[in-house]
Structures are given as structure tokens and as C-alpha cells.
Amino acid sequence: MPGNSVALVTGAARGIGRAVVDALAGDGFHIVALDRDFEGSDLVESGSLALLKYDLTDVAGIAALVASLGRIDVLVNNAGVQNGLAIDDYTEAARERILAVNLKAPVELIRSVSRQMLERHRVHRAGSAGRVINLTSVAAFMAHTDLWYGVTKAGIVSFTRSFAAQLGPQGIQVNAIAPGPIDTDMLNKFAQPERRAQLMQAVWSRRAGTPPELAEVVRWLASEAPVILNGAVIDVTDGCFLR
């Protein structure tokens, strides 16, 4: 797909998103890197990399934002939050933020980006209409100490399949990746200690995966995955969850 292809990556300033930027840039993509805060990030704008500061809790503004960006060939819905709270400790604000960033924003991004993908495909009738890659988690399939985080990750699995059913016949691939423990701030700072311990006892390598390792799976889905792969959820768990 690369060449003049453009990828929009959310949560791009650090962690998995930052590694995805490198992986896709290495494949020749032009990148729009979206994050609410680039402070402390080593990303630097260039001819092939644009930095876009945007807070995804502003779900209502996403359609206009996408319209302003022009061509998007690949959407990587990576941005996500985890509060590490027990259900009784959740405030209304914390609940609404996790629902907005983890569920509402990616749905609206897919809805908005797919419109221009389909229009471009209708005009040119060449190749794939576009690709969407959603980052979910093994939390979608197992009990989680942060209930609302698990709920949102299960929701990503559901809307991945729903959008694949809707958009697949029109040439858009919609797939998801469900990682196990990855060495990021989300795991190290926000995941509850008992959750981390449980995962690290289960993974076969006895270590967390790295963002570049996971980014390679994103790169493959964006560039090389065959068109018949649609509506899939790819587990990248190092054995901590088998299904």
C-alpha cells in the first residue's frame, strides 16, 4: 500500500503509538501523528510526518478534524486510557473519559475516515479502499480489575467486527490486535499491581512485549495483510491468554 499512502495514528506521542509511527514510516507511509500532548515526545515534524494535537474526548469535533486532513489510507486507532480503579472508586468524570477515548472516539474516527476512503475508491476503483487497525487488549476476553477498561476493550472487538461487516464488502479492511502485557506507561504506571503480576506469571517469555514488537504486527496489517483478512482480532499475548 505505501507510496503516497497516508496513515493516521492516534496516541502517537509515545509507547505503542510512537513505535507504530516508526514502523509505518519505515514502510514508506506519510504519517499524521495525533496525540493530545507531545510534550516529552521525540517526534519531530518533517515532510513525511505531521504532528496533530487533539484531545479525543472532543468526539463532536472529530468529523471536522478528519475532513481537514485530506487523504487517509490507513487509520490506526491506538489511543486509549486506563484508570486502574476499582469500580467503586470510579467518578463520573473518569468513566466518561474512558468511554470517550476508548470507545466513542475510535468509532467516530472510523465513521469519518471510511467516508472519504469509500469516496476515493468510488472515483478511482483501484486497489484497497483503505485499512483500519484497532488496538484492543486481552482485557476484552477475561476478568479485569479495572472494569470499565475491560468493557471498552470488549467494545472495540465488537465494533471491529461490526464495521468489518459493513465496510468489508466495499473494500475496507477492519481488523484489531489484542495485546497481552506490553512495556508501556499504561502497564507500568496505571495497571494495578495484582493485574501486572498475574500477566507476568502467565507469559511464556516471562517478560512484557515491547512496543516495536507490537508495531510490527500493525505494520503487517497496514501493508501486507491479504484482503481476505477482515474482521479479525489477532492475539499478541506471548501465551498469557489462549483462545
Overall morphology? globular
Count of helical regions: 7
Please estimate the helix content: 40-55%
User: What CATH architecture would you give?
Assistant: 3-Layer(aba) Sandwich
User: What share of the residues does DSSP label as strand, in percent?
Assistant: 15-25%
Please describe the topology of this protein.
Layout: E1 6-10, H1 15-26, E2 30-35, E3 49-53, H2 62-69, E4 74-77, H3 92-124, E5 130-135, H4 147-167, E6 172-179, H5 185-190, H6 193-202, H7 211-223, E7 233-236
Parallel strand pairs: 1-2, 1-4, 2-3, 4-5, 5-6, 6-7
Helix pairs in contact: 1-7, 2-3, 3-4
Structural features, described:
With 243 residues, the chain is of the alpha/beta class. It has a single domain (6-236), classed as Rossmann fold (3-Layer(aba) Sandwich), CATH 3.40.50.720. The protein has 7 helices and 7 strands, in the order E-H-E-E-H-E-H-E-H-E-H-H-H-E. Strands 3-2-1-4-5-6-7 form a 7-stranded parallel beta sheet, sandwiched between helices. Helix 1 links the parallel strand 1 and strand 2. Helix 1 (15-26) packs across helix 7 (211-223) and helix 3 (92-124) packs parallel to helix 4 (147-167). The longest helix has 33 residues, at 92-124. The chain is globular, with a radius of gyration of 17 Å. The model has no long low-confidence stretch (mean pLDDT 91).
